[in-house]
Write a structure and sequence with these properties.
The chain is α/β, with parallel strands linked by helices and 338 residues long. The protein contains nine helices and 14 strands. It has two domains: 130 residues, Rossmann fold, CATH 3.40.50; 167 residues, 2-Layer Sandwich (Dihydrodipicolinate Reductase, domain 2), CATH 3.30.360.10. It starts with 7 loop residues before the first strand and ends in an 8-residue tail after the last helix.
Length: 338
């Protein structure tokens, strides 16, 4: 039997807001199905299952994460808990032999990520960070433009991920016990997509971090220096920006419009004297909310028996994690659980 024609049964750990995005995307993923959900709050899990289960198909509700991991019908686990718990829960899933798709950041530190990758390799179990932006049609088009040399040698990237979010110590994003702060939640996209463009880790990182009253980071401004280019970004909770990304080359510029991490449109501009001349525009709405593309990639890699997804390799996850480690360390940000 052709495995690609089999239903792929997903189990979700921690049915919060991000997990809702995952579940909403599943109906447009060929063969993808929400099969089970687990939460520390069983009522919450039951409500989630009722809301997102397919018509005529009952989603199993587990009262513990261990119970979901022991479910023999689960083909892959999506982890959507707060950052602090990613390493622990992904390790448990790998040890249970369950392929893992874990929300970004894969872990709070690069050391934790390396431990998971070693475990995945030793046990022969798939592991992937859910950095959904890399799989979006617009970013696949950006990759093609770059590979075709349409803008020549890239020399400068600039991006922002800035959304005004007043300080609230009760909010997960501001809770140091949950690895709150801006960089791990939002700035990670600026770093990860810079690596997607350059294909390498920066040789030098210069950054400045501003802190909230409880010590978590609320704004990071950084320059990542690569062999042939630099990436400059600002991410923060202090203001609102247009949050696009510019990729500048010797022959032109690529603009990833709107919220670059979730974009559906990009423009290719050619240098023409002092002006930029529009050459080409790519626009493609998501089939659902954009999560569907990474789910498809994960399913394909798992069905193919791969340990990592070609579109989201472990090296990219580790490279981003090391940059964030450095920025947080030099910025004086610490978490009480580490």
């Amino acid at each position: 039997m052709n495995k690609t024609n089999l239903i792929f049964n997903w189990g979700i750990i921690a049915p919060g807001r991000i997990a809702q995005n995952f579940a909403r995307a599943l109906p447009v993923v060929p063969n993808g199905r929400l099969a089970a959900v687990a939460s520390r709050n069983t009522d919450r899990a039951r409500d989630f299952a009722d809301t997102f289960g397919e018509s005529g198909y009952s989603v199993r509700v587990h009262d513990s994460y261990d119970a979901l991991l022991a479910d023999p019908q689960i083909d892959g686990v999506y982890i959507a808990s707060p950052h602090r718990f990613h390493a622990e829960q992904a390790m448990a899933a790998l040890q249970a032999g369950k392929p893992v798709l874990c929300e970004k950041p894969l872990t709070v530190t690069a050391a934790q990520a390396k431990q998971l990758m070693a475990e995945a390799e030793e046990r022969g179990v798939f592991l992937m960070e859910a950095l959904w932006s890399r799989f979006l049609p617009v970013w696949q088009q950006v990759r093609r433009w770059l590979d075709e040399g349409r803008i020549g040698q890239v020399h400068t990237l600039s991006s922002s991920f800035c959304v005004h979010m007043p300080f609230d110590p009760e909010n997960r994003l501001y809770d140091p016990e949950l690895a709150g702060g801006n960089l791990l939640d939002m700035g990670v996209y600026c770093i990860a997509m810079s690596r997607f463009v350059t294909g390498e880790d920066p040789a030098r990182v210069v950054s400045s971090v501003r802190h909230a009253p409880n010590g978590v980071d609320v704004r990071t401004a950084a320059t990542l220096e690569y062999r042939d280019c630099v990436s400059q970004f600002t991410s923060g909770f202090l203001s609102n920006r247009d949050n696009s990304m510019l990729i500048e080359g010797e022959l032109g510029t690529i603009e990833v419009l709107g919220q670059f991490w979730a974009s559906t449109e990009a423009r290719l501009l050619r240098l023409n004297g002092r002006d930029n001349e529009p050459m080409e525009t790519f626009s493609e709405p998501h089939r659902s909310n954009g999560f569907e593309y990474q789910i498809e990639a994960a399913q394909q890699a798992i069905r193919a028996g791969q340990l990592e997804c070609p579109g989201m390799p472990w090296a990219a996850t580790l490279g981003t994690a090391r940059v964030m480690d450095q920025i947080l360390r030099e910025g004086g940000v610490t978490y009480p659980f580490l």
